[in-house]
Structure formats: structure tokens, C-alpha cells
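Lab notebook page, bench 4
Experiment: in silico fold of construct C2
Operator: M.H.
Input chain length: 264 residues
Purpose: comparison with the prior construct
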Amino acid sequence: FETNKDLVDVSHYANHEYKDFINRGILRNMVLPHRTGLGAYAKAQPVDWFYFQAAAIDSQSRDRRTGFDTAFHDEALFLGMWEMGFTPKWATAKGALPGRYRLGWWYDPRSHKVFKDTLDGRLRDEFRGDDVGLYLGIDQMVWKEQDDPKDSQGLGAFGRWGWAHEDINKIDDYWEFGLSYTGLVPTRDQDVTAFAVAQGILSEQYREEVHEDASRETVFEFYYKYFATPWLIISPDFQVVVNPGGDKGAHDSIVGGVRIQVLF
């Protein structure tokens, strides 16, 4: 499983660098300990508008490895993730406006070094595990152009928030807000215009014990998804990153690029 794309806090508007935004700070909640690895997942949906799901993922998984050497050997450390969500469809004169409201929490058993300085520039050899955190996510279509239920043209809004313990997590608070419009330009019904801003706030304990210039990183991103043909998609992208890495002494960054997709 790839938790941020397959399982938890999945956003209709900001979820995948191939289809949506590019900056990871907008694609995923930065306080969640997302993993890619072996695991188990279950989801229950007793009614159309409510679901509950849970996942256990190998917390020691490593890139470019199958995961069998960590999931089934030595310590059995699994990341636990739980999420409940509401998926209402608000009735309007132009049809239903779908939404997705998520509340989740997680548990990470891995050991992390505690942010405590020895006063000589090094961290003490103090570790703790059993980390927990909370998150919220919202996706909501707020306006439709047409009353055709198969037509997706219109404006959607989305947001995220997350919290984690400040003594072992470099980022302990996070928030995001954005807008996405399908069919904004006349005659370009499939094209997507989107903007988002996200901020990762560095832990106060990390700032006091490790890095006095630690502050917060803010990302602004805009992209336009242009369907040149049904099989060719061109997406110009523009980003502004304020205080890269959360260092208030760092120079702001401006990033521009173009993403090209060819669908077979």
C-alpha cells in the first residue's frame, strides 16, 4: 500500500503528483507518517454517506525492497491508521454537490530521538516511540455549471489540518486550503485550474533545543491542466515557497515547470 494515495486522507483535488499538484506539502498532510509497504486494510460503509476504515502498514519498510524482510522478521512494528468519513451530496438546483469530510488518527510504534540539546550542539541519546497524531480533511464541490449529473464542471474547495507531538516531530502542525475549477475557460470543459496554499509549522521544542531559526514553511502553488487531446495533457505549474525547510533565514524559492502526460 501507498498510504497517502491509496488509503488515508485521500483528497479528490490534491492527491497525486501525476494528476493534481506537484509539491508534496500540498499533496499530503505533512504530519502524517505516510509509508509505502506491506500491510492490511479494511473498510466498512454501513450507509451511503458514512464509512470507517483501518489499516496496519509495515512501519520499517524501505524503498526498493519487497518488505518481506521487515514485515515478517525481527520486530513486528506496524503503523496503525484509522479514519471515519462523511460523504454527503448536498442537493441544489443544478444537482447534487458531492463532499468528503474526514477525521483520522494514527499510531506509530517506531522509536524517535527526542529534541533535547546537551548544550554542546548535540541531541541527547533519548528516544521514545508510541507516537500518535490527529488529522482532518475536507473536499466539497461548492458550485456546478450544469444540472447534468455526468457533468463535473464547477468549483471545488478542499482543506487539511494535522497535529503531532512536538518533542519528536519536526513538523507538529500543518494546514492547507485550496480551490479547483473544472471548465473555467469557456469551451475548455475538461481543463482544470487550481490553486492551493499549505503551511508546515515547525515544533517549538525543535526550535528551542535544536535550531533557533526554525519557523514555518509556506507553499503557494498554481497549475492549469490543459487537455490538448484526449491522450495528451499539458500542465504548466508555478510555485512560491516561503522559508524553504522552515528556516526563517532561508531565501524564498520560485519554481516553474511543465508536466506532460501521454495516455495509452
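Observations: The mean pLDDT is 93. The longest strand covers residues 95-108.
Next step: discuss at group meeting.
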